[in-house]
Amino acid sequence: MSGSMNQQILLKNRPIGEPKESDFAVVETAIPELREAEILSRTIYLSLDPYMRGRMSDRESYATPIELGNVMGGSTVSQVVKSNHPQFSVGEFVVGYDGWQAYGISKGETLRKLDPNQVPLSYALGITGMPGMTAYFALLDVGKPKAGETVVVSAASGAVGSVVGQIAKIKGCRAVGIVGSDEKCDYVVNELGFDACINRKTQNLDSALKTACPNGIDIYVDHTAGAILDAVLQQINLKARIPLVGLISQYNAEKLPPGPNLLPLLVKRALIKGFLVGDYQERHAEFIQDVSQWLKAGKLKYKEDVVKGLEAAPNAFIGLLQGENFGKLIIQVGDDPTQQ
Amino acid sequence: MSGSMNQQILLKNRPIGEPKESDFAVVETAIPELREAEILSRTIYLSLDPYMRGRMSDRESYATPIELGNVMGGSTVSQVVKSNHPQFSVGEFVVGYDGWQAYGISKGETLRKLDPNQVPLSYALGITGMPGMTAYFALLDVGKPKAGETVVVSAASGAVGSVVGQIAKIKGCRAVGIVGSDEKCDYVVNELGFDACINRKTQNLDSALKTACPNGIDIYVDHTAGAILDAVLQQINLKARIPLVGLISQYNAEKLPPGPNLLPLLVKRALIKGFLVGDYQERHAEFIQDVSQWLKAGKLKYKEDVVKGLEAAPNAFIGLLQGENFGKLIIQVGDDPTQQ
Questions:
Q1: Which residues have C-beta within 8 Å of that of residue B203, sequence separation ≥ 6?
Q2: A245 lies in which domain range?
Q3: Gap between the Cα atoms of B147 and B192, Å rounded
Q4: Does B288 touch chain A (CB under 8 A)?
Q5: A270 contacts B239? CB cut-off 8 A
Q6: Residue B195 lies in a domain
Q7: What is the distance between the alpha carbons of residues A314 and A329, in angstroms, rounded to a whole number?
Q8: pTM (2 decimals)?
Q9: CA distance to partner chain B, nearest, from residue A34 (Å)
Q10: Quick check: A188 contacting B, CB < 8 Å?
Q11: A303 at B interface, C-beta within 8 A
């Protein structure tokens, strides 16, 4: 601890579009006295992650926005230098959320101790930390990969994507990455063992996906939304699963891209699922039993909009698409002997 | 059977945008001789449904497109007038898929017999047919409503939507409809018993949804995608479920609306699910055990991009958002005593 001064990086301005260095302020501040049960720790490693862009804005995101003038938030690996907490001793290593500063003060509950003899300390910010855990549960718990399936991941050389592809391989899947440079493609295929990789900056995404995924796409771990999601959707297989873990494509956008904004889906861990009734044919009896009963009991009402004559069908159909019908639209083509 | 002539409506042109009457042709054709095991039936009722617009185009949809010059497809209720099939007798009523024509010839496998003493015959095209079954399973099987939750449905006075809202009420939920006229709003609330209804043509969707759904939205049965989905997404609750049963907003579009096209999601019955790793904290041990083992076994590789000095963080973060880092981006803020 160098005297009792701290170095901090504050959020100075809310960025418009891409953040600029002038949106941040580097300051020196005095370290306050420790209160009861508090721990002072020296930051060794700070993790930088795309989600931080969201917290710099004041529109809704994963978490409450960072206030202007406050220290930028972020996960950290640190060493305890002073402790008023019975469970933490000077010299111990911890992972916490001290943010962009050289020293942090925390309550014990937010810290987890690290064993320096297992893996390098910095791994707790990556493969054995939040990004690795994101890859692990997004792929295994939402994606539910089966051997032989094809898994695509965007930002494939990154902290999450690289682990997604490697676990996909461990589970017997075909792993296909999408990245932004040939160097990253090379790394993903030749170092990490992905089956294929696409450079989204130089290749046509549609045809490159077709070539890389000859059996279609079963799982897409999406970091981007936007154009990449759109291209992937064109080639998904029946009952494909798409865990949405990030929306890099719109973090920097001044105006939201057109089309439904999927950010709330992520923030609220919600799901959109395509539905076709044909999948439920074998459960027809269950449906008929309930609905007949509800109809008899007067719990279900039903309104029909009956148009007479087959030749009236085209015009009635045109109106249907404009919402002009009122009730279920039926064309009476011939006589109904039960209604006479 | 009036002589041996049939009246049929054919697809004449693939519509550009909204279908016109001139995209259809009404023709008289001879009814061919019945072959073995075939059934000739007289159409009483023909169902008209929005999905038919998709089959008029040659872009991928629920089913193969209708060929130009062929009879328009559609579900029908009919009476058997001639049968070469042992299981069907003249005079029996059946539901099938004979399409836009006065007489249809089918194999027995595609027909289901109807009991004319249960409910009106035409109900088999609505509340006790595909639309009712869509409402039933989309809400109950994908939506999984719990008493007290809020269910929103678009096209709420229609064949599917009206049943969704009424079943939501039966299950103890708050039911909110979205429709296109005050008359439909009135019907949905006062006849069907929905708790609230929004006229999307005269009301501001965002504020009307806020008023109608004071506790947020837990389930949205989506018939439209596009702008209505976008507005609903802004007000979904944690772990909301959105069964996507139609995309009326884009059936007529000459050019696809901007943003990801969700049609493949429906066609392939796929899912997009928002993911936040914070939900998995209690399963941390499971993750660490697998990943540590895979790291030790050399099955997982990990690359870091370490930048030295806290003051370098803003610039490194700007680069991260542009994909310039290579491996997990870490700022080394202070000395790591384990790496010396």
A1: none
A2: 130-267
A3: 18
A4: yes
A5: yes
A6: yes
A7: 12
A8: 0.85
A9: 21
A10: no
A11: yes
Tokens for B297, please give them.
Answer: 């076994």
Minimal Cα distance from B321: which residue of A?
A: A50
Domain count, chain A: 3
- Can you give the pLDDT of all 340 residues of chain A as single tens digits? 445 899 999 999 999 889 999 999 999 999 999 999 999 999 999 999 888 988 898 875 556 789 999 999 999 999 999 999 999 999 999 999 999 999 999 998 889 999 998 889 999 999 999 999 999 999 999 999 999 999 999 999 988 999 999 999 999 999 999 999 999 999 999 999 999 999 999 999 999 999 999 999 999 999 888 889 989 999 999 999 999 998 776 665 556 666 678 888 888 999 999 999 989 989 999 999 999 999 999 999 999 999 999 999 999 999 998 888 888 999 999 999 998 6
Residue type, B52: M
Backbone angles phi, psi at B278, to 5 degrees: -55, -25
User: CA of A84 to nearest chain B CA: how many angstroms apart?
Assistant: 22
Contact between chains at B233 and A265 (C-beta distance less than 8 A) = yes
What CATH code is carried by the domain that includes residue A95? Answer: 3.90.180.10
Q: Which residues of B touch A101 (CB under 8 A)?
A: 310
Residue B272 placed within a domain = no
Residue ranges of B 114-153 with Cβ closer than 8 A to chain A: 116, 118-123, 125-128, 130-134, 136-138, 141-142
Beta-carbon contacts of A135 under 8 Å, excluding residues fewer than 6 positions away, are A160, A161, A162, A163, A164, A167, A221
Among B160, B277, B292, pick the best mutation site for testing chain A contact (most A Cβ within 10 A). Answer: B277
ipTM: 0.85
The string over A165-194, giving b where at least 16 C-beta atoms fall within 10 Å of a residue's C-beta and e elsewhere, is bbbbbbbebbbbbbbbbeebbebbbeebeb
Give yes or no: residues B116 and B151 share one domain.
no
